[in-house]
Specification:
single chain, two-stranded antiparallel ribbon, 236 residues, 4 helices
């Protein structure tokens, strides 16, 4: 039996998936302008989720738990909700034979539960409770090693591995409730220090969070590549 669904002018036919959507424009690898424009149109649609392809929403994104130890600081972030990814701006897309580079600039807000202990740079910190981090203009550069596989006469891209880097261009604001057991004097001193030195604090705190976020994005992109043949994504 063939089942048809519709979602934002999108057609999915199962059991063999036939994917048609105006937000995906096949481009030549050398056409950077086309690649950037097509990727930009796809951002809010992919961020909203495509249940027909088994793709989960990325905005909001839920992160169950992140635990990390680095530079003398123990960090736990749980039940985090990330909002804002649907508004990311695609800055650059470069496609080569076996790799793709993608740079995006985003402003996001993270809200959840935290536990911190140790040194935040040079400041002692201890606490647990609710937290909120606002990030304005984080530039994330991603590079994917891309392979191919064939299924029923069609070729599909695969993401073999990936790497990323990130840099905040404009600013970050940190709020941690119940620091030092509710001692507002100590808490305010640490928060003032953190927000005055946001660039260094971001470099200290953010790597495990950013890695998990990028990992979830890559996971959903893999689902898209698994469903849509290369012929619908590329003119090469």
């Amino acid at each position: 039996m063939i089942l048809q669904f519709s979602f934002t002018n999108l057609r999915v036919v199962s059991a063999e998936i036939d994917f048609v959507s105006p937000f995906i424009t096949p481009c030549y690898a050398r056409d950077s302008q086309c690649l950037r424009a097509s990727t930009q149109r796809a951002v809010p649609v992919v961020a909203a989720g495509l249940p027909e392809l088994g793709m989960e929403p990325l905005d909001p994104m839920t992160l169950d738990g992140i635990v990390a130890d680095q530079s003398g600081l123990h960090m736990e972030f749980r039940n985090t909700v990330v909002k804002g990814l649907r508004n990311c701006e695609v800055m650059r897309v470069k496609r080569y034979s076996q790799r793709t580079q993608l740079d995006v600039k985003c402003s996001v807000t993270l809200v959840g539960d935290y536990q911190l202990g140790g040194l935040l740079l040079i400041m002692p910190i201890e606490g647990h409770g609710r937290y909120k981090i606002k990030i304005r203009d984080i530039l994330v550069k991603m590079e994917f090693a891309v392979g191919e596989r064939e299924r029923q006469g069609q070729r599909y891209w695969t993401v073999e591995n990936w790497r990323h880097s990130s840099e905040v261009l404009t600013g970050a604001e940190f709020r941690f409730q119940n620091l030092f057991g509710g001692n507002t004097q100590l808490a305010n001193a640490v928060l003032d220090y953190a927000n005055s030195n946001w660039r260094d604090i971001f470099a200290e705190v953010s790597p495990p969070i950013v890695e998990v976020i990028v990992s979830k994005i890559v996971s959903e992109v893999r689902k898209l590549f698994d469903a849509v043949p290369i012929s619908d994504l590329s003119l090469d």
